[in-house]
From TrEMBL:
It holds the Pfam family Glyco_hydro_20. It catalyses: Hydrolysis of terminal non-reducing N-acetyl-D-hexosamine residues in N-acetyl-beta-D-hexosaminides. Its EC number is 3.2.1.52. Belongs to the glycosyl hydrolase 20 family. This is beta-N-acetylhexosaminidase. InterPro entries: Beta_hexosaminidase_sua/sub, CBM2/CBM3_carb-bd_dom_sf, CBM2_carb-bd_dom_sf, CHB/HEX_N_dom, CHB_C_dom, GH, Glyco_hydro_20_cat, Hex-like_dom2. Signal peptide: none annotated. The lineage of its organism: Bacteria, Pseudomonadati, Pseudomonadota, Gammaproteobacteria, Alteromonadales. It is an enzyme of class 3 (hydrolase).
Length: 903
């Protein structure tokens, strides 16, 4: 155990299960006179503090000052004022406040409080000797400065806890999250709104990001055009080839009447081969309004093998006599049925007559969901699988283990879920993990939890029925704190029983390790010791059990995602690693080579189990190709403005399977728009809306320098030529001729996504644009230049003709979402993000529009009720001068988008 962690344990004793003091103690501590000495709190005192202490969190400025630590975060820091107001007098001492703060606090100023960063995002506010208690209504404050910047209100985290030794920690009520009655999303009332553009919205002087107001959004939405395109014939994702059948006499689209329903006709098709898939697709068609009966239009299904086509390819032909679907395999039949569903408009009793020949652009079309940081329910995953299948995505990368949680039951290693799946207030971490990410002290809250073996197998079976491969991920060697703490508890348990072999069997930490490091998320104890044989025994045991779960569920595990995140500075103080470096015959001579060794060795363990290796690109880039299996999946996540294309190309040139996972466009935990009220992290992008994902050309990463901006909305250059260093050594080069990427993956990281509804809000409708780009290659996409090219705002490879074609395609896509697809998502009870409304007041009239035509708009004038917007609204002088509000409305009228003020 490291010294810093030992000090942490000494400073904060365990709270869980140790409260021996009389919780009914009703001493009048809140009524004591200020001149009297402060008392030791009872549980009742602590409870009253939790209920009566009002906390207010106010961002003061992001502008760096002399108080910023030049050795941390590049000299950048932001300043926050925390204020505390007691509604009743507080005359007890020896209590502390524990809270989550994403960026570590550097310094503070207060006469009565002190603040300290403990581990990860957990901080403690303690009382100085000068603390004099609170009079009723008295306000005290604490100013602190933390690393980097804060430009989103969701950076603040909820559930501050008050604690005193030997008592139970309690959530301070004023910091609990609440639910917005209009949007259904989490809000934090104790956080003051961000309002100052220069001091709060901007990160630094170079930050050119524009706060998106209603007028700017109105102008942007005008690009969709004034005439709504016909979306009734559109399919998402777009088929490779589609021909619409028109009446030769009138030139109008021919329609098939389906009021009498449809009749399934399997022909010579073996029902056993496709029955589960057909049942899933038929269930969705029925939910969208199609009836199935023997007198309906024949729906003829068949499999017609074609080795020249990719898995999942199909043909769909709707004629006056029948609907014909031919897949190259059962997956193709399933996809054909989903395209039939895509042609449907809810409430319509006709289908357009079309002839479709379709196949996917990428074989890998994936979504990663992080359930480790904050848990998401089995029901959420099952609903997500339905929607992934509806839009022809075929890979679910399930991130099951990280620093803040382990989410999969492993029989025989019960500590992984008994301890690693929940957070409460136990600094010893023998019953649970410390409460990171605003989790609070309640181990039963919704952010905690895990999938039992039965749950996981149910997910696997559902995925198989939808032709979706589940790729589990339990991150290692970094990002492994939950596993480490669980196995440490196991170690302590069996040591106490003097079963020493069992104690060390799956040990992931070394007691004598004195390494000092800080991970990207500021943990100092989250990295598996790669020099312990027990670490590899753990990996093999876990993967053997996961493999057995997959086999029993009927979906053999074909690929496992290691993660492969490393932590600089880990293992430098490990006796085991010093001994390994001194004695190994593998050519490893220094500590920073150990991460690659771990990945290579784990990949070999997986290969012995007949499981393919996947990992993030940065960890893989350090490995030796000759030491890795022949099949390796690399998720390329380099930022485009930081020339992230170079790493993607380097790994593809190794002949590895590269899945594009670019953060600036493929991370769905980022804000949709540049507005402090938009939820999410923003370290790679301040705004990633659905249109940006639609614009993505993953086959040609560097070309985006021509029309996208960096994370501060400044231009950048992408050099994709042959680049040499000063010594003439080749450091980067273009893709080798013929190299292509395996596929595309969207990511939802869940650090501050604490509910299933918020997860759906972040995933949808972006998932539909992801599906479009993963399945369909548009004519306007710029082909990759294997000769190499240097792209910038000045180059015009993506010319005006391509731009116009792209924007026309986007207009149809946006209208298809607004007119057709959102109603289907609502039918499935998906809480997709409703867009904010574009609006302006011009010449005494209110004008409004929306990014997805087909959704309704409401407006509210001062002192009046909300009204439906149907066209320009004439305002009198008083109304025009007063505050006007607008918001969007879901198709079913049950939800509202975020209200904005017309500017």
């Amino acid at each position: 155990m490291k010294n810093s962690l030992f000090i942490f344990f000494i400073l904060v004793l365990s709270a869980c299960g140790q409260s021996k003091q009389n919780t009914s103690d009703s001493r009048p501590a809140f009524a004591s006179k200020a001149s009297e000495p402060l008392l030791q709190p009872s549980q009742a005192d602590l409870d009253r503090i939790a209920e009566n202490l009002a906390i207010n969190y106010r961002l003061v400025t992001n502008i760096p000052s002399k108080h910023c630590d030049s050795k941390q975060s590049g000299g950048n820091c932001f300043e926050v004022e925390l204020s505390f107001t007691a509604t009743e007098a507080i005359a007890v001492n020896n209590w502390s406040i524990y809270f989550s703060q994403i960026a570590p606090v550097q310094s503070f100023e207060s006469e009565e409080f002190a603040i300290k960063h403990l581990n990860g995002d957990l901080h403690r506010i303690s009382l100085k000797d000068s603390f004099s208690g609170f009079k009723a209504g008295e306000r005290k404050s604490l100013v602190f400065r933390a690393n980097f910047w804060m430009v989103s209100e969701s950076d603040a985290l909820p559930n501050y806890m008050v604690y005193s030794e030997q008592l139970q920690a309690r959530i301070i009520a004023s910091t609990r999250p609440e639910t917005d009655p209009e949007t259904g999303l989490e809000i934090l009332p104790f956080v003051e709104p961000i309002s100052d553009i220069k001091k709060q919205f901007k990160k630094n002087k170079q930050d050119a990001t524009q706060w998106l107001n209603s007028s700017d959004l109105y102008r942007r939405n005008l690009a969709l055009g004034q005439v709504l395109p016909d979306a009734s014939k559109a399919i998402i994702p777009t088929p490779k080839k589609i021909r619409y059948v028109k009446d030769p006499a009138t030139g109008k689209q021919r329609l098939l009447d389906i009021r009498r329903g449809v009749k399934l006709d399997f022909g010579r098709l073996d029902k056993k081969v496709v029955s589960a898939a057909v049942n899933v697709a038929v269930k969705r068609l029925a939910s969208l309004g199609i009836s199935f009966n023997n007198s309906g239009v024949p729906l003829k299904l068949k499999v017609k093998a074609d080795e020249t086509k990719l898995i999942g390819s199909y043909a769909l032909d709707i004629t006056p006599e029948a609907i014909n679907i031919a897949g190259v395999d059962a997956n193709g039949v399933f996809n054909g049925l989903q395209s039939l569903a895509a042609l449907l408009t809810i409430g319509s009793d006709t289908l357009p007559q079309v002839v479709i020949e379709d196949e996917p652009h990428y074989g890998f079309r994936g979504l990663m969901v992080d359930v480790a940081r904050n848990f998401h329910s089995k029901a959420f995953i099952l609903d997500l699988l339905d929607q992934m299948a509806a839009y022809k995505l075929n890979k679910l990368h399930l991130h099951l283990g990280d620093d803040e949680g382990w989410r999969l039951e492993i029989p025989g290693l019960e500590e992984l879920t008994d301890i690693g799946s929940k957070r409460c207030f136990d600094p010893r971490e023998q019953d649970c993990l410390i409460p990171q990410l605003g989790a609070g002290p309640d181990p039963t809250s919704g952010v905690n939890g895990y999938y039992s073996v039965a749950d996981y197998q149910e997910i696997l079976k559902a995925a198989s029925e939808r032709f979706i491969q589940v790729i589990p991920s339990l991150d290692m060697p970094g990002h492994s704190r939950a596993a480490i703490k669980a196995m440490t508890a196991r170690y302590n348990k069996y040591r106490a029983l003097e079963e020493y072999d069992k104690a060390s069997q799956f040990q992931l930490h070394e007691v004598e390790d004195t390494s000092e490091y800080s991970s990207v998320q500021f943990y100092h104890d989250n990295t598996i010791n790669v020099c312990l044989e027990s670490s590899y025994a753990f990996v093999k045991e876990v993967m053997t059990q996961v493999q057995a779960m997959h086999k029993k569920a009927g979906q053999p595990i074909r690929r496992y995602h290691i993660g492969a995140d490393e932590t600089a500075g880990a293992w430098t103080g490990s006796p085991a690693c010093k001994a390994f470096i001194k004695s190994n015959n593998l050519g490893i001579t220094k500590t920073d080579e150990l991460g690659a060794y771990f990945i290579e060795r784990v990949a070999a363990i997986l290969a012995d189990l007949d499981i393919e290796t996947a990992a993030w690109s940065d960890g893989l880039s350090h490995t030796r190709k000759e030491k890795m299996p022949s099949v390796v999946q690399a998720n390329a996540w380099g930022l485009l403005p930081w020339e992230g294309h170079k790493q993607a190309h380097e790994l593809a040139n190794r002949n590895w399977q590269v899945v594009i996972s670019t953060p600036d466009v493929m991370y769905f935990d980022f804000p949709y728009e540049a507005d402090p009220k938009e939820h999410g992290y923003y370290w790679a992008s301040r705004h990633t809306n659905t249109e940006k994902i639609f614009q993505f050309m993953p086959d040609n990463l560097p070309v985006h320098a021509e029309f996208w901006l960096d994370r501060e909305d400044n231009a950048f250059v992408s050099d994709d030529t042959y680049v040499k260093d000063e010594q003439g050594k080749l450091v980067s080069k273009p893709l080798e001729k013929g190299r292509k990427f395996l596929g595309l993956q969207g990511q939802l990281w869940s650090e501050n996504t604490r509910s299933d509804d918020l997860a759906e809000h972040k995933i949808f409708p972006r998932l539909l644009a992801l599906a479009e780009r993963a399945w369909y290659l548009p004519d306007w996409a710029v082909p990759y230049n294997y000769q190499g090219f240097k792209y910038s705002r000045e180059t015009q490879v993506f010319d005006e003709k391509r731009r116009q074609a792209r924007d026309k395609s986007w207009a149809l896509f946006a209208n298809t979402l607004g007119q057709k697809e959102f109603a289907k998502l609502e039918q499935a009870d998906i809480s997709y993000r409703l867009p904010t409304v574009g609006a302006k007041i011009d010449n005494g009239q209110l004008w409004a529009n929306i990014a997805f035509p087909g959704l309704d708009i409401e407006y509210k004038l001062a002192g009046k009720n909300w009204q439906l917007y149907t066209g320009p609204v004439a305002l009198d002088g008083v109304e025009a001068a007063a505050q006007v509000q607008v918001r969007s409305v879901s198709k079913n009228g049950e939800r509202r988008g975020r209200t904005t003020i017309v500017q």
